[in-house]
Task: structure prediction
Amino acid sequence: MNENDVENRPLLYILSDTFEPIPLVKGDESTIRWGKFMESAQRRAARTVLRESPELFVSTAFMGCDHSFGVSGPPKLWETMVFDDEGAMDGYTRRYTTHEQAMSGHTMVVGKVLADNPLLKH
Result:
């Protein structure tokens, strides 16, 4: 399948034991399989706490559905997000296609948060 054919690209995915995405075809059984996977799977790939109070951490997780929102190119299945109770970077988000990209991106986002907050020690 052409990854630029966004209308026919699968929306839902689950993960193999090696973090490879498995696309699910549209249909009731696939939706049930996806729901069971999302309930039971450990989808978080990384979590880095940078401050306890007020809380500041970076989390990277498998989203289970394509977050490219109809844009051509490969599906975006992983997400790194900053959670910042003080609000400076709260909601800062990056999305990725592969587990490897997500892990690298997690490290880069942690570095950005630390660079933007010189008083943090990690």
